[in-house]
Amino acid sequence: MPASNDAMQTLTAQWYNAMVTGLGLSNQAFQLYQGPNSMVTTSQQMWNIFNAVPPTAVNNYYDPTQANNFAPDYNNILVALVATSDTNFQTCMGDYYAQWQTYFQTHQPKTWDSKGISDLFTQWSMMFAPSKSGCVTALTKAFINPINTAQNMFAAAAGSYAWNQTIDALQGALAGGATKNFSMDSLTQSSDLSHTWANGGTSVFFDLFSFGGGGSYDSLSQKATSAGLNIKANFKKVTTFAAGPYAQADPNNPVLANYNPWYYSAALATAYTHPNDNTVWNNQSATTWNSAFGPGGFLQRMATAIVVADGIDITITSTASYSSSEQTQITAAAKVGFWPFFSASGGGGSTTVVTFNDNGQFTSTTTIAPGNPQTLGILQSPMSSIF
Amino acid sequence: MLKKSLLSLLVMLCLVQEVQAQLSNLEQSAVECWHATLARQLHVPDSQFLLYQGTATLGSSSIWLWNIFNAVIMDEDDIYYNPVQLNSLSGNYNWLIYDALATDTLTPSCDLEKAIENFQDAKGTFAWNKTLDDLQAGLSSSPPMQFMIDTTFIENGNNSKAPPIMMHMIVQASFTHVLKFVSYPYSPSDAPAWQLQQYSPWYMQCILKKAYYNVDNSFLSPIDWNSIFGPDGSLHEICYALVVVDGENIKVTASDNNNTYSTTITSPQPIILGVLVATVPDYILQNK
Q1: By residue range, what is the domain housing residue A125?
Q2: How far apart are CA B259 and CA A203, in angstroms?
Q3: DSSP code of B108?
Q4: Both A235 and A317 in a single domain?
Q5: Nearest-neighbour CA in chain B from A155: distance (Å)
Q6: What is the value of ipTM here, to two decimals?
Q7: Could you tell me which of A206, A197, A200 has the C-alpha nearest to residue A60?
Q8: Using CB atoms and an 8 Å cut-off, which of residues 164-223 of chain B contact chain A?
Q9: How far apart, in Å, do the first and last CA atoms of chain B sit?
Q10: Is residue A237 in some structural domain?
């Protein structure tokens, strides 16, 4: 591993710790975000981020084409669950079960819901089996079977999986977001990630000082990081924006009114809390508790919120001295933009200006104008904490 | 600069020795101090108060509000609230009434059949007994809060010969309005409110109580009880209140052996500062 990679890994860790403290986040939940487009402009783009199952790392390069998403994972689990049969009623009725069946076949309820069935049963039991009146609950609860409810809701969504918040709500949240700023000195900031939720795991190096990427910049990166960097971050607006899978209808929301709720927590809860229980998991299914939730399972954790900022100024000062040819290289790299805001590369309301003093030390200032919100990270939660 | 004499600031001293013993670094100590101080100012037990991570503004509908109340809280983090909305009180309640053992006779005081009917009538929309309008009205008439933290954290490194690292922290916090907004699931026993006219009451507190205490295993089988309430069950803690503030202004100055750092956090709109959570037995006691 090149020395510059070690340095960038350290910087990534330092930036993570600085951001957690500076923005008031928990190192048991926060994951730094990097992606080809960190500027979210539509509800669907935002839902895609929530839908992506995060890896075990304090930082993640988000790939919008990634295969592991919550909605299909949830479906795989749903189809592996046993559709509960309601045998409780027959047990409760005992010898009277056949008599009720005969009566039910010749008498229609007024409405085919729990109240209609309940009224019919109560009428019958008053006449023929007063001692069995309480069995009605075992009969009517077929209408609130959680597994059936979940499967019906998922089918009704017909492949359109919304979350319960939209981009309009995010923009509203940002408008009321707090102003925050923090700084980081690479010579003093802790790079210890051992106490974080990912136990120090990092997935990719942020291009904090790769100058746009590529091996030709390694020597510059190493020089910058070994001499020390100071980063000052100012966010005019920052918000932690939570959302969950669309579970209950929000008919007054003009966007969500076009979607059907598709998620029902009771099904996933019972799936998670019954490992290897064949009364809950169909033992003929390819999906098992272990393949879903076990070590290496496809559904380890969920994104629960995104941390978004708007109106951003990042000033990076290096104490290393650069030759004139190196200065030319750095200035060229800055023109196409570099981390932390990839989407800002030459667009998205972003400008980056690099200046050098007489000693060849530089100051880089990246400014992203308000109206171009950037995703800084997500909050995640492991399944073991959710259920 | 805030003037102590005008604002009657309270100087909060965090218990440095205690903090040192429990925490691994100074920044974490500062967060824990902030959390404990806020809980004290709000007159709530530390164990019930969880800080919202970052800044969360208010949503625009009561459904948004109810989704927060409906989310079951995990109990792994003593300080921070993780706003996960994957596990719900309504979903767990569904299992309680679905798994309830049928008996030969109905119990008039806590009618399971009525509970099933109510739940079905809600048609998957689970309201709470307060709305977003209630929250906004309550916030505008709620009192202010100001306090100050002035404390020093000390961390001794592994090397006993090295001087200890010290951090002096001053926090001046003021809020123009602070509201503990309590709400419970919409129940038939709630007084009718016009804002809730379009929603059906779906929840009966007696069901949760009966299921949780489960005398003689008469309501749930032990297996079903464990899958909901047991150590690995799906119903951990329940949110019973949001702590909402308006006019947030927090100035933090921290200085260690080498540097001084200061920041000011302001929020132009009301934000959720944190949530209050209760274990199931506490929730049963509170929501009578």
Answers
A1: 93-144
A2: 32
A3: G
A4: yes
A5: 15
A6: 0.88
A7: A206
A8: none
A9: 45
A10: yes
- How much is the pLDDT for A386? 94
Residue A25, exposed/middle/buried by CB under 10 A (0-12, 13-18, 19+)? buried
d(CA B229, CA A370): 47
pLDDT tens for each residue of A162-202: 999 999 999 999 999 999 988 888 888 888 888 888 876 66
**Residues A207 and A332 both lie in one domain:** yes
Name the packing angle between helices B62-70 and B89-99 (round to 10°): 60
Which of B24, B57, B63, B251 should be substituted to probe chain A, the one whose Cβ sees the most A Cβ atoms within 10 Å? B57
Q: What is the average per-residue pLDDT within B176-188?
A: 97
Measured between CB atoms, does A272 come within 8 Å of chain B? Answer: yes
For residue A251, whether the previous peptide bond is cis, meaning omega lies within 30 degrees of 0, is no
Suggest the residue from A279, A381, A383, A384 to mutate for an interface test with chain B (most B CBs closer than 10 A): A381
Domain ranges of chain B: 9-286
Q: How many CB pairs under 8 A join A and B?
A: 246
Closest partner residue to B80 (CB to CB) among A29, A89, A270 is A29
- pLDDT by 10-residue block (mean), chain A, 387 residues: 65 86 91 76 94 89 80 97 79 92 93 88 92 87 92 95 97 92 84 82 53 55 78 93 97 95 98 94 96 96 95 88 87 60 48 87 87 91 94
Closest-approach residue (CA) in chain B for A24: B54
Number of domains in chain A: 2
